[in-house]
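Hi Y.,

Following your request, here is the sequence exactly as I used it, all 380 residues.
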Amino acid sequence: MVRNSKLPNIPTSIFSVMSKMAADYDAINLSQGFPNFPTDPALGALVDQAMEEGFNQYAPMAGDFELRMEISKKIEKLHKHFYNPETEITITAGATQAIFTVIAATISKGDEVIIFTPAYDCYAPTIALFGGKVVPIQLKPPYYKVDWQEVADKVTSATKMIVINSPHNPSGMLFSEDDMLQLQHLAEVNDLFVLSDEVYEHIIFDGNIHQSASKFENLANRSFVTASFGKTFHNTGWKIGYCVAPAPLMKEFQKVHQFLVFSVNHPFQKAFATYLKDDSHYLKLSDFYQQKRDFFLNLMKESSFKIIPSKGTYFQMLDFSEISNESDIVFAERLTKQHRIATIPTSVFNKAEKDFKQIRICFAKTDDTLAEAAKILNEF
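Below is the corresponding structure, written out as tokens. Let me know if you'd prefer a different format.
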């Protein structure tokens, strides 16, 4: 045992646990959030081209400038907010590194950070690592809506930041315009930072619109927004993301970033800079994933699982309360070991690991894989 561990009660990530179990039992892996189909060959060719052209040494600390310009153009086009590529954008080694860096740059011992559970499992340990206190607010099924009065009641003189995630993992919920306006008011009145995790920004269904923190001027002025190319372009293993924020906030971000990774894979950045010039590469993504969601849900329409269609992300919650009284962890383990299908038990993301009898599946899979998975799940 390591003496005085900084994270003594943090286990191995559930994603690692379930992916290993899927491999051990030769199960269909619907647990971890990654596609089982290839990235666009044209994007791979751009990486090859960048390497052949010699972009194999360190990129600038803040990231390739051409890529930062393309990100700035994209956000201005979509959300009508201009981020200066010189001072307000940094390329990161994935969105998780961006999230870690934001928290490292802003949270000190005793600071309180409000998060909404179920929550991506990197938030709480990172806050704890820097001496912060996690203040979880549990969102409740089936719709996982935020009670803003409850949030206001949780704000104290020690509150430093609110972390949001929309589209929301694992529930598939979206923050509405009203949600963002209430967040903006709360953050202004209490002088709070906001960390807006928007990695699924381009995966939104049924005609809904992504309400980015960048869209709301007074919110954008106090927000760090993090995003992921891996989630958008089917290459999670490349680990390329970015963070945007007002210049004073980004200055603090870069103080940490430079000593955490210094810079990020150069040829991949060059490839994304070119690839982003064609906006259809990300604007068509919602239609692509809605087809997959609808395909899977159509196969599951006679199942015993209770399902409310995901509004965004490539995740779908399945309520098994009418199937089994087992805990979600036991149920997910049984699914993997006996039925050869790996999912994620969602209690691990909840406040005090509250069990709502729900598992999460990832539908970023080929239709054949989804059909095989649905066949197994329909046996329950």
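The domain at 57-279 is CATH 3.40.640.10 (Aspartate Aminotransferase; domain 2).

Thanks again,
Q.
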